[in-house]
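Support request, please re-run this one:
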Amino acid sequence: MRRGPGDNHDDQVLRKDTMIRLPSFLHGGTSSLVSTLTTIATFPIYKTVFRQQLHSTVVRQAIGQLREEGFLKLYRGVVPPLLMRTLNGALIFGIHDTFLHCLSSFTNPCSVTPLSVLPAVAGLGTGVVEALVFTPFERVQNVLQNGGNDRSLPTLKSVLARLGAERLGMGYYRAFIPILARNTLGSCIYFGLKDPFSAALREKGLPPMASSFLSGMVISSMVINLPLYPLSVLVVNMQAEVVGEAAGVRGSWKALWEGRLKRSVPLLYRGGSLVILRGCISWGITTAIYDQLQRRSAH
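Re-run finished. Output below.
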């Protein structure tokens, strides 16, 4: 079949539509700067919650552990989350927008798949990329935050060397399956509900910035962090140790649920309120800034 004179232009438009969405990467990175800066201030709180997740202790006991270790070790393990916070916003918003535009350009208007579902579908792909990129960061962070590793693995370099000597499933990508489940579900829910919820709030008379903030805050805290918190607890307990025979996901959950947690839901959610509150504020701010930057670039 011969090509018409407008075909080259159509190809150029299609290539332009499916290009990597660089402005979204930039806006996502900018919106995550606030979270990056607050990570240092809130890291002692996060580390307290980590000890609760790992040892099922009350806040007083977790704080006591950190006091015994001393101030110099309080910020041990802060480097991975700082890097993650800096890169996370740029990656997830940029990748999601890129996936969304690719899906939109390949979706037939007469398709049985509604266009309103595409952000959630793109969120699934975003969660996969996020898990692949950030699982090693999370693994290193959890090893460093476990006080039981202070003597055998005293420095970041020693942790990297030890994990690098292991095969991927036991080293850097330990607990990849629960992280993949948590991230894909979280991204799917966040991107699927963020804009509809924000639009509904704007119809009620709220300004765009406030509606975006409340959208990110409510979805992050009540719809994502609360139901998916048990996966985060499982990840912490799977990744904190680097010695001995490591059980699989099912074995690790059974040991955690029946052993340390004694089949207790309150013990499972110990420390969860602080994590949910922290995520609620940080994702509310991140969502508000990102949406504002996207609106400005659209005009």
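The chain has twelve helices and no strands. The mean pLDDT is 85.
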